[in-house]
Amino acid sequence: xxxxISNADTELLAMRSVVGDxxxxxxxxxxHPDRLAGPPPLDGVTAVVVxxxxxxxxxxxxxxxxxxxRSAGVALIASGGEATPDPALLAxxxxxxxxxxEVHRYLAAGGPMNMANLVRFVTDTVTMSGHGFDPPSxxxxxxxxxxxxxxxxxxxxxxxxxxxxxxx
Length: 168
Known about the structure:
The chain has helices spanning 9-18, 62-72, 87-92, 97-109, 112-127, and strands at 2-6, 28-31, 47-52, 75-80. Helix 2 links the parallel strand 3 (47-52) and strand 4. 33% of the residues lie in helices and 12% in strands. The protein is of the alpha/beta class. It has a four-stranded parallel beta sheet, sandwiched between helices. Helix 1 (9-18) crosses helix 5 and helix 4 packs antiparallel against helix 5. It is globular.
């Protein structure tokens, strides 16, 4: 089981949207660190991915989680919220730096497909599950998103509202 802890609600929503499409036997839990009532339970967890916008100081429970992961033999992958990896968070990771850096690339690229491939990457790398994964695929900085199925060249029904959504 993978545990994702992120203070970016968009990542938690992306994880929620792909969890049903993950390979059989792959389980994921997710939480926002500010909404945890205490230390997150590690029962059944093989890897923890922590993404903190604002760096290590953004969550006071990080040091305790690192200690618990090390004691329990649970892989910890810590990543910052910037486009480039955060050296202080990478140093907290218990996996090789290359693995933690690749996880950061999935998170920095954003989007549901990258989140699904992040899960596959971590489970393949940490538990050798063999599900396979695609490399991170950056989401365009600017463009028309067709995730709602409206069609890029399709027609819009008159009288229906048109809404602009800005992803960051």
